[in-house]
């Protein structure tokens, strides 16, 4: 009987140790996982549709608002940011694009090889302060989630902001909306998407 109790006590200790180690691993993974993205919003991806003319693209950033810990429910995934990027007066000979999702900042990046040299831009969205930086300008995204970024051949970058669009707008409708906001802008009127 004593042997049985010893084995039982030993297995309880092993079980407790296993639970303790499992708990430590779970907490460690949770802490590591929590460091991936923080701020008011989390981004889950971005897509872009290149322009047929002029050189550029429409980028859409997807994600959701990070709720307080006491709020439960499924994240409301949606388009959080719409960005028309145009580079007038150049011809493209190759390009690359990417997105980076740091702890507090999501950055859209594009590079175009042109006859005038390499043109590069990076547009960061600070998800903690909810601000988008285009060149030397800073915009509060909450005031409007639609932007136009113009990159001139000399590398100068300027931006404009427009009132928010809904959660799931298509590229064509983003372009149409921006063209309606700037009806006298010949460059914006000339924008065509690859379909």
List the helices and strands and how they pair.
Blueprint: H1 2-34, E1 41-53, E2 55-65, E3 78-87, E4 92-101, E5 105-114, E6 117-126, E7 131-134, E8 137-140, E9 146-151, E10 157-162, H2 171-181, H3 186-189, E11 192-193
Parallel strand pairs: 3-9
Antiparallel strand pairs: 1-2, 1-11, 2-3, 4-5, 5-6, 6-7, 7-8, 9-10
In brief, what are we looking at here?
The chain is of the alpha+beta class. The protein is built from three helices and eleven strands; from the N terminus they run αββββββββββααβ. It has two domains: 1-35; 41-193, no CATH class.
Describe this structure in words.
By secondary structure, the protein is α+β, with helices and mostly antiparallel strands. The chain has two domains: 35 residues; 153 residues, no CATH class. It contains three helices and eleven strands. The strands form two sheets. The chain has a six-stranded mixed beta sheet, with helices on one face. A hairpin with a 3-residue loop joins β4 and β5. The longest helix is centred in the first third of the chain and has 33 residues. The protein is globular and about 55 Å long. 22% of the residues are buried. About 12% of the residues have low confidence.
């Amino acid at each position: 009987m004593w042997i049985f109790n010893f084995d039982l006590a030993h297995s309880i200790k092993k079980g407790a140790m296993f639970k303790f180690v499992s708990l430590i691993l779970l907490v460690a993974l949770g802490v590591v996982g929590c460091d991936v993205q923080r701020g008011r919003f989390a981004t889950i991806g971005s897509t872009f549709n290149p322009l047929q003319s002029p050189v550029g693209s429409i980028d859409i950033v997807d994600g959701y608002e990070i709720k307080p810990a006491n709020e439960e429910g499924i994240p409301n995934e949606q388009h959080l940011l719409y960005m028309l990027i145009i580079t007038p007066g150049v011809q493209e000979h190759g390009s690359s694009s990417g997105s980076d999702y740091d702890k507090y900042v999501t950055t859209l990046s594009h590079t175009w090889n042109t006859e005038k040299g390499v043109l590069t831009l990076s547009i960061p969205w600070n998800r903690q302060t909810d601000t988008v930086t285009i060149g030397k300008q800073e915009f509060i995204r909450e005031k409007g989630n639609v932007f136009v970024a113009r990159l001139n051949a000399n590398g100068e970058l300027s931006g404009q902001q427009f009132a928010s669009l809904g959660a799931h707008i298509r590229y064509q409708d983003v372009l149409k909306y921006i063209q309606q906001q700037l009806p006298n802008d010949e460059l914006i009127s000339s924008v065509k998407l690859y379909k």
